[in-house]
Amino acid sequence: MSDAQCACVISQVKKLTAQTETWFNQQTGGYAPIFLRILLAYEFGEAGYEKLVGDNWFSGLAFPIPFNLLSADVNWQLAMCFEIIGPIALVLGLATRFFSVVLMLLTVIAIAVVHWPAEWHSLAELWQGYAITDKGFGNYKLPLMYLLMLASLFCSGAGSLSLDAWWVKRGQENCGV
Q1: What CA–CA distance (Å, rounded) separates 64 from 46?
Q2: Is 84:90 a contact under the CB 8 Å cutoff?
Q3: Mind listing the pLDDT tens digit for each residue in 51-105?
Q4: Nearest CA among 34, 42, 147, 36 for reference residue 87
Q5: Is the pLDDT of residue 29 over 80?
Q6: DSSP letter, residue 19
Q7: C-alpha–C-alpha distance, residues 128 and 145, integer Å
Q8: In which band, very low, low, confident or very high, does the pLDDT at 177 lie, cut at 50, 70 and 90?
Q9: Sign of the CA dihedral running 91, 95, 100, 106
Q10: In terms of DSSP H, where are the helices of the chain?
Q11: CB atoms within 10 A of CB 43
């Protein structure tokens, strides 16, 4: 195949890719965040429900500043409330960026207090904590994945299928925009 033929094929592939991308964006643009919202709502809602019906196991944990100033019961109640209210808001797509930040903060605290290895002496040891189960090196893989998914929602917003989008659209209509 000559250089001219290769350039022609590459050009046609680029054009087809651009057309496909445009079509997908027109058909599904703004819908992707709902999948993250549902998954995260399930995971955090499950944790909130377990706190609601379970016993407080926060006593004896060393929380970072300023949460170390609060009692274990208050920290338990805060975590439970945000793990119940946050998922409801995520499913509805209501104040998605706000609840993404709140749940990111909750996740960072959970990583620091529960999932991070108690002790590590090398990056290799720390890397062993990037796991689902704790084998003595922590288990921060899932919380880190949740953190990144929440960061994606924070950056993208709730998407088209949300109360946030409805609210913005309604506001634009009322303002004549």
Answers
A1: 24
A2: no
A3: 999 999 999 899 999 999 999 999 999 999 999 999 999 999 999 999 999 999 9
A4: 42
A5: no
A6: H
A7: 16
A8: low
A9: negative
A10: 3-28, 33-53, 72-92, 96-110, 123-127, 141-156, 163-174
A11: 18
Please give the model's pTM, rounded to 2 decimal places.
Answer: 0.81
Record the tokens describing residue 160, joined without a space: 């088209």
Which of 3-12, 37-46, 67-76, 104-113 bottoms out in mean pLDDT, i.e. has the lowest? 3-12
CA distance 82 to 103: 7
Spatial contact of 101 and 147, defined as CB atoms under 8 Å apart = no
What distance in Å separates the CA atoms of residue 138 and residue 117, rounded to the nearest whole number?
4
Residue with tokens 């079509």: 23
Burial of 87 (0-12, 13-18, 19+ CB in 10 A): buried
The CA R_g of the chain, rounded to the nearest whole Å, is 22
Q: Tell which phi-psi region holds residue 61, choosing left (phi > 0), alpha (psi between -120 and 50) or beta.
A: beta
Give the count of alpha carbons within 13 A of 20, CB side only. 6
**DSSP type of residue 64:** P
Is 158 in a helix, a strand, or coil?
coil
Within 10 angstroms of residue 151's Cβ, the number of other Cβ atoms is: 14
Identify residue 150 by its one-letter amino acid code. Answer: L
Contact 64, 109 (CB under 8 A): yes
